[in-house]
């Protein structure tokens, strides 16, 4: 039986990372677009505090541009971890969405700790046998428990709000509700498993160890407990594989929305690296068919932009 | 209030989906807080309502109601064909990534709604939510292009009503991108509105007459959407020079077409017609600061507008390339763009990745240069000449979309007496649009101007009244709204006229350079003359 669980988990991990990777490739491979930045732009450093840009400098093209990656990382961190935009602009939603997301981060962290402990057990078993191993277990329990509770609370709150708030209802599709229910179901099951058979996270830690080490040993649990554990693993795996197939993959999109659009203010300087790419894009054919364009799929952007217009 | 019950309503019936009534709107601050202090909202004529596609209280586009099945199909097919092109890397490389991100990733949390002045001032009518039009487009895309089930995305019927009303609805957004600033995911409903406009214009040939025939087409034909050709522009600027010389007591001469000049100054030609004092002020300041500059009489470089930025990438590119070419041929070191928000954004930011090689001439915002002049001490200034309350409108295009926030404030600090400046709330990059953005300021078919004042411009008017709330609201106490953007100025002028705000409350508006000239010691006092405006 355990072997099935391992296969399901491996499959889910492959699907998840594969789909995320495909998504990243999809967004990365898009052609350069025209500039469409939106201030404040985080990497402007001091100017970012009031939304200023390098365009405030006289003859900006003669000056060295300061791009503070640290400021970008900080803004990104605050946004990702605390959902700052939601806190600022939609407090009601934040009280549901923040626990949901933060709970997920905690669950991911708990998993990370379990993976770390498994690796350590493989390369340095003595460390895991020492007090350090105990500490890692406590951290896993705290993170895992808090994560489950917060996420469950958040997801239930989000469902409630989606169904009761007039502003949201009309925009809510069946899949939006299903997605949240999926979280509630999978985490709910995990929570029950934790209470019933695994409050020190030892079973799940053992499962992770076997995944990491490819040992795939049988999980020491029987009867109803085994069924419960199996169901939990299957539902969590299914959830993991499902996330990137839906618009919940917005965590990938969000990165691009910030980095390649909102904060993408790189100027196209004469003889700079952008020019070459743009010149390529200007050779692409245009097929827009309104009369004033008359794109025939052969004329290029450069031709359409420079051709004589009818007087 | 009449509200569309749901997103799906767009496909149903032919009657208006929404109506904005005074009772639904939050009252304005005094002295415009009573129903009888607001002018009536002109309603659409019956004929317009029967022959043209109707969405709500007004009409921007004049799309005739189709008379046959073929015409209906043509509308639907045209839209779908345009939508396919808008997701193709060849036809829409310009905006593909931003568009797809917004198309695919909205979490439908409605955080953006409360940031939109149009939604708020309509009395929160769902039709004007930033997401209403985006959601319809998204559902069309998912159902009819991607073939996803409605379980996945929510349903929408695709028929001529959906398509034409959606296009009309794209002209109920100022594309000010305030909503995009608040989105936790980074979706951009302004961009979605603009993409709908692009599909309509670039594929179906549907665009407001003011922006297309009388706008970008005219500009490409004769050089300016004002219809002015090169000779007329030069003549008019000559007159402006004469007037400015007389009023200021300083002989002013605007140089044209100076080969190898350091600066090519580009105005929105609307200034020449409507606000000659703005053009005169620039000439005077540049001259007195000893700059090596000129204007161009070559079409279309005497008109910095580029309406394509509002609705059509091709018209946009055509205009931008021509602007840059003139500058390159003149051999100037830089193009300086005067007080016009969209002209600045268009040529400096959006066109940046279209201009390569010789025509990649550096562009600078005039306010940045003016700050240098004012703070360098090249002009002798006496702030006490500007002894009246001043508030500043931040044109979205220049501020939220270019990050030019501080220079205008540095200038005001130098030319106003202490305590005379008050910020609007919110301001800077978080400002509200004046309600004239994305072409609205020049659109006034049917009762569109009334809608623009009554709905889209109402928040700005509210902000202005609130900024001056501690001042006596009467004509004896002039108050100045500094709006360094032609479009915004046009909109503020119209709002003030609509509400009788100058006569009733002593509200005046103007640009930034006028305030600078008004503070110049060498200029005859009283350059800004509030009496003339009453
Ligand atoms: S655009 Fe952004 S803020 Fe608006 S509903 Fe979608 S996710 Fe929420
Ligand atoms: S761009 Fe501006 S006008 Fe348009 S929906 Fe967003 S906030 Fe409203
Ligand atoms: S008209 Fe002015 S305030 Fe409105 S969008 Fe344009 S620049 Fe912004």
Uncertain stretches of 5 or more adjacent residues of chain A: none
Give the radius of gyration of chain B: 23 Å
List the helices and strands of chain A in order. Answer: HHHHHHHHHHHHH
Oligomer: heterodimer
Report how far apart the termini of chain A are: 78 Å
Q: What are the segments of chain B in which pLDDT stays under 50 over at least 5 consecutive residues?
A: none
Overall form of chain A: elongated
Question: Which ions and ligands are bound to the chains?
Answer: iron/sulfur cluster
List how many beta strands of chain A DSSP finds.
0
Would you tell me the overall average pLDDT of chain B?
96
**Judging from the principal axes of the Cα atoms, what is the shape of chain B?**
globular
Main sheet summary of chain B: 4 strands, parallel
Q: Which strand-content bin applies to the residues of chain A?
A: under 5%
């Amino acid at each position: 039986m355990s072997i099935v669980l391992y296969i399901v988990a491996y499959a889910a991990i492959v699907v998840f990372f594969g789909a995320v990777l495909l998504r990243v490739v999809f967004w990365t491979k898009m052609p350069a677009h025209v500039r469409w930045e939106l201030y404040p732009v985080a990497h402007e450093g001091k100017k970012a505090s009031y939304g200023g840009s390098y365009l405030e400098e006289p003859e900006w093209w003669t000056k060295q541009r300061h791009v503070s990656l640290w400021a970008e990382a900080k803004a990104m961190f605050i946004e990702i971890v605390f959902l700052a935009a939601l806190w600022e602009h939609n407090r009601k939603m934040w009280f549901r969405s923040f626990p949901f997301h933060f709970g997920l981060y905690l669950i991911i962290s708990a998993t990370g700790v379990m993976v770390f402990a498994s690796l350590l057990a493989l390369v340095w078993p003595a460390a895991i046998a020492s007090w350090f191993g105990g500490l890692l277990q406590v951290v896993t329990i705290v993170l895992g428990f808090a994560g489950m509770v917060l996420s469950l609370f958040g997801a239930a709150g989000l469902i409630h709000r989606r169904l009761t708030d007039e502003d949201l209802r009309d925009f809510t599709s069946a899949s939006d509700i299903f997605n949240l229910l999926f979280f509630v179901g999978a985490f709910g099951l995990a929570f029950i498993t934790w209470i019933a058979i695994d409050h020190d996270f030892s079973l799940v830690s053992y499962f992770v160890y076997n995944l990491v080490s490819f040992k795939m040993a049988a999980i020491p649990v029987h009867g109803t407990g085994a069924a419960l554990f199996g169901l939990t693993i299957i539902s969590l795996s299914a959830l993991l594989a499902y996330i990137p197939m839906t618009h919940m993959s917005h965590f990938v999109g969000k990165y691009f929305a910030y980095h390649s659009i909102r904060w993408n203010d790189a100027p196209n300087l004469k003889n700079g690296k952008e020019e070459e790419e743009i010149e390529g894009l200007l050779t692409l054919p245009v097929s827009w068919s309104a009369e004033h364009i008359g794109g025939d799929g052969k004329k290029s952007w450069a031709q359409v932009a420079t051709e004589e217009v009818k007087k | 209030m009449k509200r569309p019950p749901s997103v799906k309503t767009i496909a149903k019936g032919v009657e208006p989906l929404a109506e904005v009534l005074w009772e639904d709107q939050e009252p304005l601050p005094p002295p415009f807080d009573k129903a009888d202090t607001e002018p009536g909202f002109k309603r659409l004529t019956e004929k317009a309502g029967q022959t043209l596609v109707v969405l709500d209280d007004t009409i921007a586009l004049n799309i005739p109601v189709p008379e046959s099945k073929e015409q209906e199909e043509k509308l639907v097919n045209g839209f779908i064909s345009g939508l396919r092109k808008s997701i193709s890397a060849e036809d829409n490389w310009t905006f593909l990534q931003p568009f797809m991100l917004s198309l695919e990733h909205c979490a439908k949390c409605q955080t953006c709604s409360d940031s939109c002045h149009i939604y708020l001032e309509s009395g929160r009518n769902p039709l004007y939510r930033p997401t209403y039009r985006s959601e319809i487009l998204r559902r069309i895309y998912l159902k009819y292009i991607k073939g996803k089930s409605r379980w996945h995305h929510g349903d929408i019927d695709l028929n001529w009503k959906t398509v034409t009303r959606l296009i009309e609805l794209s002209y109920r957004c100022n594309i000010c991108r305030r909503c995009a600033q608040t989105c936790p995911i980074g979706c951009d409903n302004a961009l979605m509105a603009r993409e709908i406009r692009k599909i309509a214009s670039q594929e179906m040939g549907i665009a407001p007459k003011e922006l297309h025939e009388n706008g970008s087409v005219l500009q490409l034909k004769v050089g300016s959407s004002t219809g002015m050709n090169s000779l007329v522009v030069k003549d008019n600027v000559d007159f402006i020079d004469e007037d400015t010389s007389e009023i200021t007591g300083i002989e002013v001469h605007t140089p044209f077409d100076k080969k190898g000049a350091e600066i090519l100054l580009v105005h929105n030609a609307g200034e020449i017609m409507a606000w000659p004092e703005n053009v005169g002020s620039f000439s005077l300041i540049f001259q007195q600061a000893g700059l090596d500059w000129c204007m161009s009489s070559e079409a279309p470089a005497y008109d910095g507008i580029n309406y394509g930025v509002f609705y059509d990438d091709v018209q946009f590119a055509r205009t931008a390339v021509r602007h840059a070419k003139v500058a390159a041929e003149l051999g100037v070191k830089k193009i300086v763009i005067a007080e016009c928000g969209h002209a600045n954004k268009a040529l400096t930011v959006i066109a940046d990745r279209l201009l390569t090689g010789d025509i990649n001439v550096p562009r600078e915002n005039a306010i940045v240069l003016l700050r240098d002049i004012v703070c360098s001490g090249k002009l002798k200034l006496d702030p006490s000449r500007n002894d009246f309350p001043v508030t500043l409108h931040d044109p979205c295009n220049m501020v939220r979309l270019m990050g030019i926030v501080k220079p205008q404030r540095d200038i005001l600090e130098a030319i106003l007496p202490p305590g005379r400046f008050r910020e609007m709330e919110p301001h800077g990059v978080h400002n509200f649009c004046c309600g004239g953005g994305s072409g609205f300021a020049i659109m006034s078919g049917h009762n569109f101007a009334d809608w623009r004042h009554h709905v889209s411009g109402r928040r700005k008017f509210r902000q202005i009244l609130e900024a001056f709330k501690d001042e006596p609201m009467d004509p004896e106490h002039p108050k100045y709204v500094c709006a360094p953007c032609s479009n915004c100025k046009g909109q503020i002028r119209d709002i003030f006229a609509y509400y009788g705000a100058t006569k009733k409350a002593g509200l005046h508006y103007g640009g930034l350079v006028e305030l600078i000239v008004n503070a110049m010691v060498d200029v005859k006092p009283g350059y800004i003359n509030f009496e003339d405006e009453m």
